[in-house]
Amino acid sequence: MAFVFFEDFEVGETREYGDYLIEEPELVAFAATYDAQPFHLDAEAAQGTILGGLAASGWQVCSALMRMMIDAWVKDSSCLAGTGVEDNRWLAPVRAGDRLAARTTTVEKADLRARPDAGVVKFATSLRNQAGQEVMTQTVSMLFGRRERLSGAPSAGARRPPAPGPVERIDDPAAAMPEDFARARVGAYAELGETLFTADLIRDYALKYDPAPFHVDEAAGRAHMFGGMSAAGLHTACLWMSHFIATRQRLGGVVSRASPGFRDMLWRRPVLVGDRITFSTQVVAKRETSKPGLGLITSRNQGVNQRGEVALDFFASLFAPVEPA
Predict the structure, then answer these.
(1) What is the mean pLDDT of each run of 10 residues along the chain (325 residues)?
(2) DSSP codes joined into one string, 143-197
């Protein structure tokens, strides 16, 4: 396979790849580490839930897609980093024994004024199971090195609409991750805890799901543009989820809550070996849905390093019962 640079991507082209088997031991092990909700851990407990049985964490499905991308084509490219996930939707449960395949379309390219040696490419992916059922869609952007440095002024790339402005912070963890829709309070904020990113922690996830050299080898990390071994962006998000679940458990709330997806995930700073990331969540919106008895709570979620710099920033939604259990 020819090595692919930024110039080689063509808007409208598609790539079909993957045959990723979701095995039950991996499904349960991932959930135990990052998303310890009963419908991801125990088949009996999962019966009668909104997922209708044991299902993989959505974060595991995202991680599996990243591994599929790496193995199929990203490893043979000049990819320097992911820049963020514009939109990710979980459409159907992924079960133990499912085999996943992907179709990725190149939807946009943009030059960078600050990086004449690189450009950003946006991809839209549909992930399907062995029955052809679409289980997830994702729009992601990645930074790729150019074969030749750009000469002249770059063309203007498409811009995302601005993110909603901040809402007033109210320190109320119980209302930031409530048992029911009524208890949710717009503005409610909760600090979730912190993680020290060691080389072993970063490497363990990366070897399974994102084995880029700068995620698994310290020397390769020092040679990379980030100047050090860095955590995969999705790994940082998975650890946010682990703290979210642990905090909810400490509050004594109902653990299992399904999510339709997340949006506007930006990896604003690299997370390097030795960084200590503090995670948080804040309710920014709530509304009732067309699903009987269910409301939707939307939160803004962040990971901030020891220097006070935002490394992770995204919006996510959770279904919650309208009436208390």
Answers:
(1) 91 97 97 95 88 96 98 97 97 98 98 93 98 98 95 58 74 92 95 98 98 96 96 98 94 80 97 98 95 92 98 96 76
(2) EEE-SS---SPPPPPP-PPPPPPPPPPEE-HHHHS-SSGGG--TTEEEEEEEEE-
Question: How far is the first Cα of the chain from the last one, in angstroms, to the nearest whole number?
Answer: 55
Name which of 291, 300, 322, 290 is nearest 181 in CA terms. 322
Assign 5 to helix, strand or coil.
Answer: coil
Give the C-alpha distances (Å, rounded to integers) separating 260 from 51, 100, 119, 248, 322: 11, 19, 31, 19, 17
Q: What's the token pair of residue 147? A: 């074969």
pTM here? 0.94
Is 206 within 8 Å of 229 (Cβ atoms)?
no
Evaluated on CA atoms 51, 56, 62, 64, the torsion sign reads: negative
β-bridge mates for residue 191, sequence order? 280
Token representation of residue 307:
């220097």
Each residue of 92-114: b (16+ CB within 10 Å) or e?
A: bbbbbebebbbebebbebbbbee
CB 215 within 8 A of CB 231: yes
